[in-house]
Amino acid sequence: MAKTAKKFNVTVSLEYEGVTFYVKPIDGADGGQGVPENPWDAALNAPPEPVQPPFDHRELFVMELLSKLGVGEKVHCGTIRSFGPSTKRKLEERGYIEVTSAPEQPYRDREISLTHAGLADWRALERYKTRYRGLQRLPDDFAL
């Protein structure tokens, strides 16, 4: 409707369920302010996340906690909620955490700590989310 009104310089009216809508072209309708930025533009033109494959919710929780503590600060595995063997394996394979064991029980993990690579990638992910804050991970079955 707006394109038609502007193209032919006419007022267009539409009645829908007892309500009448009018669209009238106005010169300088944006008030000289320019068109506001559409948040979806950033989402459509955004590069992929710096951490690939993306973290799952458990990895995000652990990385956030460890990044607050800093590099090399050791935390007992049992004190972190949702930190199981799968999360440990994924983060260790990426090189983001270091796992230490007690000498008398080498097969039992005791403490984990964040590595420099883990902190660098976590900060890159935070910068990415700050820049593209309109982006949120949508479910895989989401369709427009």
Describe the structure.
- 10% of the residues are buried.
- The chain folds into two domains: 2-40, no CATH class; 57-131, Winged helix-like DNA-binding domain superfamily/Winged helix DNA-binding domain (Arc Repressor Mutant, subunit A), CATH 1.10.10.10.
- A hairpin with a 2-residue loop joins strand 1 (12-16) and strand 2.
- The chain is 37% helix and 19% strand.
- With 144 residues, it is an alpha+beta fold.
- A three-stranded antiparallel sheet has the order 3-5-4. Strands 1-2 form a two-stranded antiparallel sheet.
- The chain has five helices and five strands; from the N terminus they run αββααβαββα.
Question: SSE layout and pairings?
Answer:
Elements: H1 2-8, E1 12-16, E2 19-23, H2 39-45, H3 57-69, E3 75-76, H4 85-94, E4 97-102, E5 105-114, H5 116-131
Antiparallel strand pairs: 1-2, 3-5, 4-5
**Count of spatially separate domains:** 2
Structural class: alpha+beta
- Proportion of β residues? 15-25%
Question: In whole angstroms, how far apart are the ends?
Answer: 23 Å
Largest sheet: 3 strands, antiparallel
Q: Specify the helix fraction band.
A: 25-40%
What spatial order of strands do you see in the largest sheet?
A: 3-5-4
Mean pLDDT equals: 80
Output the CATH homologous superfamily of the largest domain. Answer: Winged helix-like DNA-binding domain superfamily/Winged helix DNA-binding domain
Q: What fold name stands as the CATH topology of the largest domain?
A: Arc Repressor Mutant, subunit A
Strand segment count: 5
